[in-house]
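[Q] Does anyone have a clean structure-token version of this?
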Amino acid sequence: MSTHYDLVVIGSGPAGEKGAAQAAYFGKRVALVERAEHPGGAGINTGTVPSKTLRETALYFSGLRQRGLYGIDYSLKDGLTVADFMYRKQIVVENEWKIIGRNLERHEIEVVWGEASLEDAHTVHVRKSFGEELDLETDIILIATGSSPHHPDGIPFDHRLIYDSDSILHMSQIPKTMAVIGGGVIGCEYASIFTALGVNVTLVESRDRLLAFADGEIAGRLQKRLESLGLRFIFSDRVLKVETSDDHVHLALQGGEQLECDIALFAAGRQSNTQGLGLEAVGVQSGNRGLILVNEKYQTNVPNIYAAGDVIGFPALASTSMEQARVAMVHAFGLRYKEQVSPTLPLAIYTIPEISMVGLAEEECHEKKIPCLVGRAYYENNPRGQIIGDLSGMIKLVFSPIDKKLLGVHLIGEMSSELIHIGAQVMATDGTIDAFINAVYNYPTLADAYKYAAYDGLGAWERWQAAGKPQ
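[A] Here you go.
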């Protein structure tokens, strides 16, 4: 059985869904192939949405927000069960399945459930779970198969006490002690979630600091906040050996320390889901960890085959994946629409507390010899910060002393994942810190802290001028 389409999309995560909808919106006949039982990819089923929902659940059960308001421990964690912890996550995920299904149906996208592989540059072979096979002939192919947790050699991931960022969603009980290996985004997020629940967590990171890509001042404040909640950090060290028993995990570290814990979570990055796709047979080029190589329009070396999302690597965000797929489809079908993904990419890390960033960090400016000044504002000096009980948050603006152009924004604290978009919009229009000074914000709001960070920066700028620096 063979059917012809304008577009066949492989994968129903953020990139696959939005790419399919983009083409269908402009009248293209689209089929979408998904091998999992439900749509949404890792973003809905094992990654973005579940982990962020668990973060909110942890904040609720831990009483951390109430503690900030009243200074009293309202924690419910002593009687917390896995069912309690996972309940809200499952509700949100199931609602997202329905939303995606309605979106695909509204755009008249044909969903084919099964395992896809490339027969040739214009044919996608699908093997359904109950044995039926079919070929989908198409003009354009979009590969949006996402990524999976990377499993380093020598780690017994088949043991019930060893987890990755997918399997942790199916743990059988809340542990008392836990080791997290990896101080990147996933490791930090889960370490903070379990620390909030009262679990004794030790995080092992091979580098000398958390989140090497983040602004050092913000990462340092995050570390101090997590340490105050009880999270222990071991830097510049790595796991040499893993031993397991029925009820414990034993980790031998390179530096000589021995860790014993109830469970261990390995957050060692991710690798693309390209195995079995048949890329080699068609000639699609890939790189490290199977990442598909693309140009600025997300086109592979095979002209009618495109790829978007985690399967092409950095930045591997749900937000950017959606836009990549849209740009790819605009290019593939010659549409007069979105031509590129904005180079101004906000990033949020959903630790407790959240941190967010866009643009250049202060250290990055120094390394690149880009002149910069800094303005700061603190939640503790903001009435809304006082009202919500978050006294450790801050906004940091990095800007040019030459023309006050905004170069970067970095936040830590409640709502930072929302607040970052104010700074991102100013950066996207090549704005200066005067944009914040001239703006009127509701009062009391955390957004108003932008104005005071800009005033602080303006003071630094005046001192810079007074010192006779060249303009």
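[Q] Thanks! Anything notable?
[A] Residues 46 and 167 are 8 Å apart (CA to CA).
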